[in-house]
Amino acid sequence: MWLFLTRRFRTWVLLTFLVPLATGLLRRVGHALERRNGPSSVSNGLLKAGELGDRARSRLRGDRRRR
User: pTM for the complete prediction?
Assistant: First the structure.
């Protein structure tokens, strides 16, 4: 079924649903690792990846405020 969808619609689905889910999952795993073992390079990397997704999504929506 994925083949029958237009390229633009597939891109929209990826950016609207899958990317936010993935960044949220990365952020949750990063927080869980920090709680369990303390801060590490892996947990910091996961948290930064989650923040990157949030920043990209807010920029695409047009939010211009700084955090």
Answer: 0.67
